[in-house]
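The authors assume throughout that readers already know how a fold can be written as discrete tokens. A single example would do more here than another paragraph of explanation. An entry of this sort, consisting of the sequence and the corresponding backbone structure tokens, reads as follows:
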Amino acid sequence: MAERLSLSPPPQWLLSVAPPPPPPLASSPPPPKPDSLSLIRLPLSLFALSPLLLSNASDLLLFSPISSFASRSPVRATSDSFSPVASPKGYASAPDQLQSAREDIKELLKTTFCHPILVRLGWHDAGTYNKDIEEWPQRGGANGSLRFEVELKHAANAGLLNALKLIQPIKDKYSGVTYADLFQLASATAIEEAGGPKIPMKYGRVDVSGPDQCPEEGRLPDAGPPTPATHLRDVFYRMGLNDKEIVALSGAHTLGRSRPERSGWGKRETKYTKDGPGAPGGQSWTAQWLKFDNSYFKDIKERRDEDLLVLPTDAALFEDPSFKVYAEKYAEDQDVFFKDYAEAHAKLSNLGAKFDPPECIPIDDGPAKGAPEKFVAAKYSSGKKDLSETMKQKIRAEYEAVEGSPDKPLQSNYFLNIMIVIAVLAILTSLLGN
């Protein structure tokens, strides 16, 4: 994982780790003199990492997601910078390219284990939303502004250059997808591929066009504020989120790890991180820190394992009376946690976003699978005489009672076999009786 320089105590509260950054992109001719649209030109070492990153940076601080729009001027990465590139005309993002980009993101996750840093990328681009500001893009949210140097320099975003380098080849391949959409697509896909719930996402976010449209620093949460519960509410209430959504989103800390030399939090190494994947070391919130489940809440509640990380903002979930109601529920019931998390993640990724088209762009899960065999009662008739409707309904009820259904057909002709057995028994009984 890439090393992250500690610029100042990272004001992030969701930390994670990033996988080894991909090899440098092929260099290109020096870009023109920077102008209002000039983008990232900082050395990778400047942004080592922060909590929820899984690149070669270090730990990343997961924050909270919200979405916006991808701009018409995407950026193409070179070995040390990003330069504006025009997007195709039409909707903010091309529907067919969104689906293909998702498949490429899945492949990226399989080889780099960068789930945490991609989640953090989407959250930090979206988490600047302010519900009290109506104008776009001044209100913040997921609008692709995080690709610009001025916003990457914010302390809470240290290390996210690694995430940009991971995702940039996909952006180059699919120029018809905006950065705002790509960041949120990557974040949701990372959650799902780590075993988490399906996020009800929609796309068509418009990108901001230049660094002058980036939000001011200070909108993202800190990891160790003096009053953790109050701080979390100040940040998330500003985005229009409630206590349940704060706790549910905090559960994303089930992914990733934190490194003290990069984020200021955690141990240098634990029994769960000494062997990687990615660069070994750091301290995770959970034992299986690349698996999305409800173990974060169980571990925070029990506090029995010194090798697992607990930040002040984590502990607040079981110390604050209102937060505790939800934290206790999620520790006991993973299905409830998954449901609430999926809704909160989707809401956060949409707040503040500007969509083109306004009705948004849904993407499906690919080609439909072959339909399973339907239940046909006539198959279980004997001879030329069909069964009565009453008998068909009775057989169907019995069929479903043993877990058969149009969506889950039995492996064999169960009822035909039963009918044969009954017929044989009837014959034997008749013979014995005679």
About this structure: The first strand starts at residue 75 and ends at 77. The beta strands are 75-77, 82-84, 257-258, 283-284. The radius of gyration is 26 Å. The chain is about 40% helix and 0% strand.
